[in-house]
Amino acid sequence: MKDEAILLAHGSGGRLTHELIRDLFLSELSNPFLDALGDAAVLPPQSGRLALTTDSYVVRPVFFPGGDIGKLAVCGTVNDLSMVGARPLFLTIGFILEEGLPFADLRRIVRSAAQTAREAGVQIVAGDTKVVDRGSADQVFINTAGVGLIPEGVSLSPSAIRPGDVVLVSGTVGDHGIAVMAQREGLGLSTSLASDCAPLNGLAQAVVACGGVRVMRDPTRGGLATTLVELAQAGGVGLEIDESAVPVKDAVRGACELLGLDPLYVANEGKLVAVVAAEAADAALAAMQAHPLGRDARIIGRATDGHPGRVVLKTLLGVSRVVEMLTGEQLPRIC
Amino acid sequence: MKFIDEFRDPRLARSLVERIRQRARKPMRLMEFCGGHTHAILRFGIRQALPPTVEMLSGPGCPVCVTAAADLDRAIAMAGVPGVILATFGDMIRVPGSRESLQQAKARGADIRIVYSPLDAVRLAEQNPSRPVIFLGVGFETTAPGVAASVLDAHARGVGNYYVLCLHKLTPPATRAILDSGEVNLSGVLGPGHVTTVIGTKAWEFLPREYGVPIAIAGFEPLDILRGISLLVERIAEGEARVDNAYSRSVLPEGNRAAQDMMARVFEVADAEWRGLGTIPASGLCIRPEFQAHDAARAFPVDVPPSREPPGCRCGDVLRGVLAPPSCPLFGRACTPEHPVGPCMVSAEGACAAYYQFGDAGHEG
Q: Which residue among A186, A315, A316 places its CB closest to the CB of B116?
């Protein structure tokens, strides 16, 4: 590929489009289903219940410490499938490219997506590329969709939560949001923080294998607090969380204090929350901590029959307050 | 972690709460001036931990909230001037003006950018030399020195397209106005830690001297706040009014001279309109004539229709400490953080938003 930047012609369907597909997408993502280049991927039969999901990625900056939009686009969909207990199998990927995007950036993004797919053991079997005028998109937008297979006997749902169940989180919260924010122009924070962006299928399967798992969620936008409120509302139970038990990295807490943000509402891309039966809690915790992505896992609270639909946080003073969903965007305050 | 965990030690916090319980035998009414205090008091559950004799009222210390609707309308009108880039701190953009918010103006096409520092706005001006960049200067004595620094920087380096719409306000005159109105009978004031880092504890000596009201300057961690409250409770129990500094790791009697000098070089004191409090004499800052080339109010005279407050909104009463947020008929019904009617429901430091976000779950925990 001689051109240094993406041109409108790369999306025209003509020669440049074919070059782009051959030299970049096929060379990075190659597998028998994709290589066939049909109008649709033809996949082998599966027996069991399928899970299907889709998500779009518009992160800025496109490259951030610990990841990039390509890695994020694969992780996000793999993780959504994993949270319902599915084993992710196949993904599709669609790119909307802004005219002028450096070709080297696109290669880096596609390579990163391919690498992440290999790590997660999924195949990207179909794709699409469109190019829009400069200014009509912000460098690159990606959509991924994915299918996964739910093993026999696995059925996760918030409605399965019972009073007495235990709430676990697989590690420190807020890493992704703060890493991305620190990278944004003008913030001037120098931290060693990296996004936690990672495919969670291995960790999720290890937890599910312990038995007793009621429901899992990955607390992305809106953070841990918003996910917990969603679970409490959907399950019609109360959740009681011990603030001091929620793991937060020092650097994340420091940055949050500085910016007036609450780490409970900051996005994660490589963490999961699991609600498990009390008798399975120790095994689930051990399974998480034995996995490289769950070393900092903690038990953070439990389900209760008091205050159904609400999450109550026990603060360090031993008093309780209600936790609400994130409203609007978390915006840094004035002083 | 250094400087966070040390000030959140649960054991020390409980012993301070115990001391407050023992000493607060008669009812007392304390006002936390600062929105940062309101936020922390609710976030950490300090209000529920205090004995019923200690009542905490929220004051006018949310800079976003006290910005008059008329001033916000002017800022929105300036953002609509062709070519203008309006730079602002994040929590201003959702505040409803008389007709719309900055966020709505942005969606209509106005070029409004969120910055984290006024110096970022100067950089924005350098990057866009053909376009005027107006920074929305909102905030108390904490923020004003940084904005003064940005004007000095732009002036020294000849960044002629950098302007400030100066809406800065001063905290001691507002505290005086609340006491003068006699609407709330205060036993003590929890003083703003960051503001006082700049202005110094001496700036508060008028409170004990002229009003017989004790003030304790406090930081924003749970132990800071509890220590401030504990000192106030002691003073009130002993019947002694004075200025106590419970934030000595940051606050000096004379404050931060360099910051004060910078403010004095760029700004002069002027009357200012506060939402809820009306016009308070000598309670705001405006840009001195020698820096008028950077004064957005002079460079962009905009005509805005008379401002109006949202019907039913009682933010003014909340800001004066007359009304507790949950007692407002709109609170949590017509007015929520998703659909705020007034500014106190918008900002992270607004009393209504803090009460809504960190509601009291009772004591069942």
A: A186
